[in-house]
Amino acid sequence: MKIRAHAPGRCGIVGNPTDMYGGCVLSCTTQERAFCELEPRGEETLFQNEDQHSLVRSKEDLRLRGDKLDILRAAFAYFDIDPGATPVQVRVWTEIPMQAGLAGSTAMLTAIVGAIVRWQNLQFNLYALAETVRKIEARLLGVLCGFQDQHMAVFGGLNFMDFYGKESLEQREDEPLATIEPLTERCSVPPLLLAHTGVQHHSGTVHKSPRQRWEEGDTEVRSGYTRIMALARRGKRALIEQDWQKLGEVMNENHAIVAALGGSGLENDRLIEAALRSGAWGAKLAGAGGGGTIIVLVKDHEKVVQALLDAGAEKLLTPAPRPGLTIEAEN
């Protein structure tokens, strides 16, 4: 039986990065997806991505090596799978720009987990799947991350998500589950555009300093993130009422707070300024800063596109609500 699983990237419209701090986020999927294909193999287990491969003969071979195949090793190790007992070929690839602030690595890990769950005939609800993906990222791969990425990859669509009670990042058994409010069928999709700076980053690195400051009780960080949580709620209302000017205003304030806390970057700010000068309602980081991707609420599409290209945008994408984790199997 061949199993194919795939999951989307995401872009934070308003609210990020408060998903790391018990906050809330308004978020939409990308149209681009990450894929995992798993099928029986007569010899040793084989892990493959677009430019690497590795034979995996035993659990010893699941030790992390610091390369792009670690994501597969970590997933197999989490589920305590002996790759020598039932050899399979596992291939992963993606349409999502990697290390671009669009949760491409999380989408790939979600697809891998989905394929493993189907292969092993495990029973997981959507919330448990999202929590499992984050446990692998945080505990095995050592990524400092919130909860937005995993829930968007699993649930898909356009969502308002509340992570109240999850600010410790520990994923204790007594923590509440995330609250996921699907908005895809309840409102029009705003005219959004993504612009990638071309600069790659690791979101765990970007988040480290603000997280330390928050844990130390830094009042500037704590009050800033509390304000961003309020902006996310205002953004939800603006979205439902199709008030793009108001949505743009909260996006801009969200970015101003993050930038003041050192969470943006020169490349991000250059593209954001270009978008706003061309008449966009709002523009901000789509995920983590230090490079990555910005999200723009577009008023005049053609004018904004040209302004972003002139400012050095490497790639433009159009986000849209798409299904979350999808698992297909064929005999």
UniProtKB/TrEMBL annotation:
Tell me which GO cellular component terms the UniProt record holds. Answer: cytosol
Q: Where is the GHMP kinase C-terminal domain?
A: 237-308
| Enzyme Commission number(s) from the entry | 2.7.1.168
- A Pfam match: GHMP_kinases_C
**MF-aspect GO terms:** ATP binding; mevalonate kinase activity
Q: To which species is this protein native?
A: Chthonomonas calidirosea (strain DSM 23976 / ICMP 18418 / T49)
The record's annotation in SUPFAM superfamilies points to: GHMP Kinase, C-terminal domain, Ribosomal protein S5 domain 2-like
Which keywords accompany this UniProt record? ATP-binding, Kinase, Lipid biosynthesis, Lipid metabolism, Nucleotide-binding, Transferase
**Recorded coiled-coil stretches:** none
Domain GHMP kinase N-terminal positions? 76-157
One biological process term from GO is:
isopentenyl diphosphate biosynthetic process, mevalonate pathway
Q: What is this protein called?
A: Mevalonate kinase
